[in-house]
Each structure stands twice: as C-alpha cells, then as structure tokens.
Amino acid sequence: MVRPDGPFPGEYGGTRAGESAQAVVWDPFCGAGTELIEAGMLNPRARLIGSDMDPRAIEAASHNARRAGVKVEWLTGDFRKVAGQIGPVDVILTNPPLGRRVAAGEALDLADELIAIAARKLTPGKGRMVWVAPDAGRAAVTAHRAGLKVAATRRVDLGGFDGEIQVLVV
C-alpha cells in the first residue's frame, strides 16, 4: 500500500502531466489544485484546466497555482456543464469527492457520470483518465461499458481509508 504526500505516487507523473508538450489536462474536481499544479511542474507547456463547484476551492487553487508559478485556467461549475465548455482533453486527472466528502451513493453516481464524460472528452488513441476510483470494481465495469480500458491500477492509503488509482485509456 502506497501512502504518498498526495494521492498520486511519483511514477504516475508522466501519465498525469501528459506526454506531449501541448497536452490538455483537466481536473474536474480540482479542490485546492494540487494535482494540476504538480502536472504543470512536470510539463510546464501543458494546457491545464481546473474546475470545481465551490468558488472558494477555485479561489484557493488559483492562489496556490500563482504561488507555484503554474498557469491554470480555472472554471467554477459542475463538471457536467464544464465538460461542455472545453474541447477534447488528453488527460483527465482527478481525486473526486469520495464517501467522506459526499454521500457514498452520490460518489458512485458521480463516478459513473465522470467515466461517461471521459469516454466522450478524451482524445482518441491517446487520451487517459488517471483518478482515484471510489469503487474500483464498479468503475472498471462502467469504464468497459463506456469503451474505456483499465490500463493500470494501484492501491493507495488516502489518510484513513483505502483507494485505488486507475488509469483508464480510450
């Protein structure tokens, strides 16, 4: 079991940041912006997009990114609506709200909707979603039904409860 400083261990760095210099990376539940800031440090030329429903989270994330010297486009709103405002993305990188931040059933429904959006938004042939799955088994089945494949998994300790990082590919 890995317990990194953030939810994503270092070996996922290339996956998180995107391999191409012009990669588009979106975090639909950006919170304080940690994952996007790390992605921007790994690939400074990537186009980073962060969204969250909470304007206070966007304000904090924007502050954190400025302090880190990382440029991010911030959008306030529900991820389902934001998905319609942005073009295709190469990487969706996110640690979505899990059962402690939202009701467990709601977290699973959000995960299902996110997978469906990922199947539509990810760049064909190279797009991937790197995320902490709230229910890894259910997510794998939902991903398969949406036309995505689970390319890698890793169990992680999320500070008191276990999670699984999944890399889903188009």
* CATH level-1 class: Alpha Beta
Count of all domains: 1
Strand order of the largest sheet: 3-2-1-4-5-7-6
Q: Briefly note the structural class of the backbone.
A: alpha/beta
Radius of gyration: 14 Å
Low-confidence stretches: 1-5
Order of helices and strands: HEHEHEHEHEHEE
Shape: globular
Total E-strand runs = 7
> What gap, in angstroms, lies between the N and C termini?
27 Å
Report the portion of residues in β strands.
15-25%
Fold-level CATH name = Rossmann fold
What is the mean predicted local confidence, pLDDT? 87
Query: Biggest sheet, open or closed, and with what strands and sense?
Result: 7 strands, mixed
Helix content: 25-40%
Reported CATH architecture:
3-Layer(aba) Sandwich
So how many helices?
6
* CATH H level, superfamily name: Vaccinia Virus protein VP39
Layout of strands and helices, then pairs:
Layout: H1 13-17, E1 24-27, H2 34-42, E2 47-52, H3 55-68, E3 73-76, H4 79-83, E4 91-94, H5 104-121, E5 128-133, H6 136-146, E6 149-157, E7 162-169
Parallel strand pairs: 1-2, 1-4, 2-3, 4-5
Antiparallel strand pairs: 5-7, 6-7
Helix pairs in contact: 2-3, 5-6
What can you see in these coordinates?
- Residues 1-5 have low confidence and may be disordered.
- The longest helix has 18 residues, at 104-121.
- This protein has helices at residues 13-17, 34-42, 55-68, 79-83, 104-121, 136-146, and strands at 24-27, 47-52, 73-76, 91-94, 128-133, 149-157, 162-169.
- It is an alpha/beta fold and 170 residues long.
- The protein has 6 helices and 7 strands, in the order H-E-H-E-H-E-H-E-H-E-H-E-E.
- The protein has a single domain (10-169), classed as Vaccinia Virus protein VP39 (Rossmann fold).
- Helix 2 runs parallel beside helix 3 and helix 5 packs parallel to helix 6.
- Helix content is 36%, strand content 24%.
- A 7-stranded mixed β-sheet has the order 3-2-1-4-5-7-6, with helices on both faces.
- Helix 5 (104-121) links the parallel strand 4 and strand 5.
